[in-house]
Design brief:
The chain is mainly alpha-helical. A three-stranded antiparallel beta sheet has the order 2-1-3. α4 runs antiparallel to α6, α8 runs antiparallel to α9 and α11 crosses α12.
Length: 351
């Protein structure tokens, strides 16, 4: 008798679980919270579709069919997709982002220790050549600073609960997180504007030429220490411009604006999708920026000076951007193409 009762109870529970899963729009969603199960059970026999109906939950909890965020959701008690999004954001995406940034850091440190920076083959000439104008430097640094602010505030929002909260405490971390969120929301539109400005400023310098294939083939000579002929920007800089500044910048800007200005009837589901894409794109952008910063500073001595002061040594230009250097020498008497050459009183011709 006990075996029969146990068998019947098991059978009923099995049928109930199958029926409940049929009412979940996304069968791959994690198991619902107890509160969600309570709502599902409350719907059974009510005015809404019952637990056994495939439309169960579309009024009070659902992933795809929610209306715009805000007032139209006043009757939504629990969104089933929120649990999936929360798990994806706090677990998979956070882990992927952390691993990617850590691996990139280790690669950069290993590259520097094993290969070392790409130095000049000959001593500097002592003569300088203008490379970037004041406007170009203002646009670059405005984009870079806003990017760094978004990076640190975004990382705090993504990892703060697990790394900072335990030792800072709930009250202090709440204030820090709110400050970071507000800062992120206000600096975001500034980054969008700077990204557009840097695109317009440098796009004409970033079209690929045949010589870029040779640069890519030899990885820019970073390993062999061989200086590969390059134009105003080499192929690596062009890949950074089109892949990160343009493509990832467009992804970050569009998804960020969708979440920052919830005034176009965005649904909660759309906001969650935007958040997932935003974090994924930001992870790639930050990893690429780490390599960009390395090459622009200690990885290639002299590169930082170009963006800081706007000038470079002529020997640096001749070795790292020989095609552009030759073009400057050939056109320096033409006002449209001329790049000023500043010559301190030192003997000897320009190399």
């Amino acid at each position: 008798m006990r075996i029969s009762i146990h068998f019947i109870a098991t059978l009923i529970l099995g049928i109930a679980s199958m029926t409940a899963s049929a009412g979940v729009p996304d069968r791959n969603a994690p198991l619902p919270y107890p509160e969600e199960r309570t709502i599902q059970q409350a719907e059974q026999g009510g005015t809404q579709p019952g637990l056994g109906d495939s439309a169960s939950g579309k009024q009070h909890l659902d992933r795809h069919y929610l209306g715009p965020y805000g007032e139209p959701e006043r009757d939504v008690l629990l969104q089933r997709g929120g649990n999936t999004w929360r798990y994806l954001r706090n677990e998979d995406l956070a882990l992927g982002c952390g691993v990617l940034l850590l691996v990139m850091l280790l690669v950069i440190v290993g590259f520097y220790m094993l290969i070392g920076p790409m130095r000049l083959e000959h001593p500097p000439s002592g003569r300088t050549l203008q490379r970037f104008s004041v406007w170009q430097r203002v646009v670059h640094w405005s984009t870079a600073i806003s990017f760094l602010v978004l990076t640190f505030s975004g990382l705090l929002l993504l990892f703060g609960k697990k790394i900072i909260l335990p030792w800072l405490g709930h009250a202090a971390f709440a204030d820090l997180a709110m400050f970071s969120k507000t800062l992120h929301n206000f600096v975001g539109p500034l980054f969008v504007f700077c990204s557009l400005a840097i695109f317009v400023t440098f796009v004409h310098r970033n079209f690929f030429i045949h010589a870029d294939l040779e640069w890519i083939k030899h990885f820019g000579g970073l390993v062999s220490k061989r200086h590969i002929p390059a134009g105003y920007f080499n192929a690596g800089e062009k890949l950074w411009f089109w892949g990160a500044v343009t493509m990832l910048g467009l992804l970050m800007s569009s998804t960020g604006l969708v979440m920052d200005f919830v005034v176009l009837d965005q649904t909660r589901y759309q906001l969650q999708i935007a958040d997932v894409l935003h974090i994924a794109g930001a992870s790639l952008y930050m990893a690429g920026a780490m390599a960009h910063i390395y090459i622009g500073t200690i990885g290639m001595p002299g590169a930082y000076r170009a963006m800081r002061d706007g000038v470079i040594d002529t020997e640096w230009a001749r070795e790292h951007h020989s095609l552009w250097y030759e073009q400057v020498l050939a056109t320096q008497d033409e006002s449209d193409a001329m790049v000023p050459v500043h010559m301190p009183p030192m003997p000897g011709p320009i190399r």
